[in-house]
């Protein structure tokens, strides 16, 4: 769980969180969690592997304003046993645990030199994904 610090530039003309800010905040949180579990930018550069998204979808429930106390919870929902494909869910929650939005992303790993899906996934990446927080209904694909 990460408490969000919202900026003026995150707002839209209606003075609530701009739709694209949700996606930016979720992407930053994913990278920070990957780093926390050993999947660092350095490792990705060294192995010439990077995350790639196939689908990104947001369901908006409640507005978030500049002074809102909101946190994001990010968990792995599904994954292939070899770590080559995965689904991550982000939930934007108030301090009272009211759901403001859910973002779900489906992705894989790309070989940044060959520009093709990376197979097999390096052990360090698979190990990090195995430690990534998981939803209660997590399942292997």
From TrEMBL:
Pfam families per the UniProt record, alphabetical: 4HBT_2 (PF13279)
Keywords from the named record: Hydrolase
Molecular function terms, GO-annotated: fatty acyl-CoA hydrolase activity
PANTHER family per the UniProt record, alphabetical: 4-HYDROXYBENZOYL-COA THIOESTERASE FAMILY MEMBER (PTHR31793), LONG-CHAIN ACYL-COA THIOESTERASE FADM (PTHR31793:SF24)
Protein name per UniProt: Acyl-CoA thioester hydrolase
Organism: Pedobacter africanus
């Amino acid at each position: 769980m990460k408490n969000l610090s919202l900026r003026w530039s995150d707002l839209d003309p209606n003075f609530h969180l701009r739709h694209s800010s949700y996606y930016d905040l979720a992407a930053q949180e994913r990278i920070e969690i990957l780093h926390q579990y050993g999947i660092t930018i350095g490792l990705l550069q060294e192995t010439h592997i990077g995350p790639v998204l196939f689908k990104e979808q947001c369901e908006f429930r409640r507005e978030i304003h500049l002074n809102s106390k909101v946190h994001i919870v990010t968990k792995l929902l599904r994954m292939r046993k070899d770590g080559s494909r995965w689904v991550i869910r982000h939930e934007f929650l108030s301090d009272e645990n009211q759901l403001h939005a859910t973002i779900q992303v489906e992705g894989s790993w790309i070989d940044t030199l060959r520009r093709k899906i990376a197979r097999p996934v390096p052990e360090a990446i698979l190990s990090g994904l195995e430690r990534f927080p998981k939803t209660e209904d997590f399942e292997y694909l």
